[in-house]
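Notes, p. 3: input format for complexes.
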Amino acid sequence: MKEAIMELARKKNAIILAHNYQPPEIQDIADLCGDSLELSIRAAETDADIIVFCGVHFMAETASILCPEKTVLLPCPDAGCPMADMVDTAALTARKKALGDIPVVTYVNSSAAVKAVSDICCTSANVIQVVNALKADAVLMTPDRNLAQYAAGHTHKKIHLWEGYCPFHNNLTQADVDAARQAHPDALFMAHPECPPEILAMADTIQSTSGMIQYAGSSPLSQFILGTENGLLYPISKANPDKEFFPASPKMVCPDMKKINLSDVKHSLETQAGEVRVPEPTRKKALGAVQKMIDLA
Ligand code: 13P
Ligand code: SF4
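Output follows (297 residues plus 1,3-dihydroxyacetonephosphate):
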């Protein structure tokens, strides 16, 4: 099945992009596995005709925003991100107005429509750089309140929060981290900035998913506890075969990130099922926010 898919992708001039949380068999057939920022940059640069995006809906939408001339496929169309659904354009526009039209920094984990009413996007890999690059003294960050609080600790700007969160990162508790540290006393604890502030305060380092892979690779240590979705265990172990990785909690599983299987990818490539196309007026407005972020990177 894997070989058949890769052959089909070659014939159709398709590129397969997979997020670091995807199931191992999906990561194995991908041309690139990465975090949200790396995948957006690759989507923007590719000369393939078709982008098969193995991730969740906002990631495929971001690829469509950047590449309107390409066919973007999400092999399982109902793979979404609950955090992205915690903000909508009406509520965001009203809040922005109430705050005196300050710039809106929107996490890529958001719909294209929300990006279209935002000033700039960010990911977990570049949030501090993006916030500090803005001229304004105050910004509204949406939808992730934990990412916003993390950024607030690394800037002199006033950060207004939106009350969104990732249900899986937000559920990691201090007791979970204590238990993992007791079980692995020599391990370094890495946390994703979607974790709550009390967890980030316990972390030895705070990183995006690919940031964790790179950090482990250049660290002299050999054991790591991962404060992120457990799909990362596969690519981080593959990239660092001589090191050991442990989940901070077995509960950290995002079901939407596990929806795509090999049959879905094959079917999507054969039939173009799961095409994601952002309507042109929304796309044009959203492109401004996404492109500003990519230009900074
Ligand atoms: P990264 O951009 O760090 O890979 O994170 C994406 C995500 O959805 C985290 O839950
Ligand atoms: Fe969204 Fe959380 Fe799943 Fe990432 S892990 S896609 S933020 S629900």
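The mean pLDDT is 97.
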